[in-house]
Structure formats: structure tokens, C-alpha cells
């Protein structure tokens, strides 16, 4: 996905952040259900991505499809998707799949918020998804069974759940989606995509601090407390040493970098003088 479709997905995911702290698995399930409906009709996908249609017209079409059949939260999300622009008919479905998976992953993340490291729920989800793919990858019979076009969705779901009996609810939903509606790829490939989304989400809980010399326990404690206060969550802090920084500290949390190193200031000075 690239260009205007990528921009539209970014817009939806940005707005979704306000919903995720109270997200539920039922919301994720609803979104996957709408995705199934969308995937079943090429005409619907074309109508929702037709560049000649106004966003309000596409939103009305989506309302006629899901209004009263899903929760207001789910309708608001899919309506926003419908209003935005998409470069290809498939892109809106790919985006909805990503959004639904992100909601499910956020449910695991919300359970993480009460843990000491802030990672337990997300780690369990990653482990469950990885465990499923390991089991499937070890058996050609299971791979054939999950990819058999004639097999019903219920049978595939029963088999998949039997492979990961101790998996959490979030992983079970994502795995079920992958085996019943892989959308043209192998179920394990889709599970890999979901795992990648979970891994990216997990990085939001990890702070990596690099300093020019080893920090004392007191300095690490103060840095930990400051980062926790700044981000409003209990972060896992990993500390490393890089003498090339000369002095100061560089901190990365997810995609954000806070750089107070001497090397960075020198480089900025060089740019100003160039």
C-alpha cells in the first residue's frame, strides 16, 4: 500500500488511538465481520473506492451496509475508511484488516498496562502467534488442511484452536481470522503480519537509552522515573554505552528519539557553519 492509500491508513490509525484505551475484542470482531462482507463483493469495494464519488456519498453507502448491525464505534471507524481516498479497490480492505488487528492487539496492550514492565500482554500475544506458526510449519498435513478450499470455516477454526489450546483471546481471534479469511495468502503469512503489528506496538513500551559512559544506578532510576512520567506508562528501560556520543544521552521510545548527546550538538553546529 502506497501513496494516497498509505496516507488514508495513517489518518485512520491516528484517529484510532483515542479509541484503543477502551478497545474490546468485540469491536475487533465486528470490524473483521465488515471486512468479510466487503471482501465478498467486488462491486462494493469499487463503489467505496470510486474517486468520482464524494466522501459523504460513500459514508452513506457504508451506513446502509452496517447501520444498526454493528456498534456505533465500529460504524464510526468503517465510515471514516469509506470517506477517505484509496488508490486501489483492495486497499480499503487491507486497511480495515490492519485496523481490526490493531484493535485486537490493543486489548492485549491494555492488559499490559497493569504489569511491571508494561509488556506482558503483548509478549503473550506474540508468543501465541509465533507458537501457532511453529506448529503449523512442522506439519504438512496441517498446512494442507488449513489451506483446503473445500474445508468449511468452522472446521478450520476448530483445527486451529486445537493447535493452540492455551492461547489468549486476542491470539485466538487473530488466528481464527487468518485461517478463515486469509485474503489470498497463506494463513501463516497473515499471522506473521499480525505478529509484526504486535511487535511494532510493543516497541511503544520499550525505552532504549544510550550514553557516552555507564550510568549509575541513581541516574538510571531518575531516567526511568522521568520517562515514565513523560509517557504516562511504565516503560521497560534498556541502557547501553556508546563512547562515540562523547557526552550526554540518547533515548529512543518507539519511533521517537530524544537526543541530548554532545555528538548531536556538534553535528548541528557543523551544519550551521557549512
Describe what you observe in this structure:
The protein is α+β, with helices and mostly antiparallel strands and 274 residues long. Among the domains are: 1-112; 203-273. The protein is built from 13 helices and four strands. It has helices at 3-16, 25-39, 42-48, 55-66, 72-83, 89-112, 120-137, 140-147, 153-163, 169-180, 187-202, 217-231, 262-273, and strands at 206-211, 236-241, 249-253, 256-259. It has a four-stranded mixed β-sheet, with helices on one face. The longest helix is centred in the middle third of the chain and has 24 residues, at 89-112. The protein is globular and about 60 Å long. The relative contact order is 0.10. The mean pLDDT is 89.
Provide the descriptors you would attach to this structure in a database record.
4-stranded mixed sheet, globular, 4 strands, alpha+beta, 274 residues
Main sheet summary: 4 strands, mixed
Tally of helical runs? 13
Whole-number radius of gyration? 22 Å
Give the termini distance in whole angstroms: 38 Å
- Percentage of β-strand residues: 5-15%
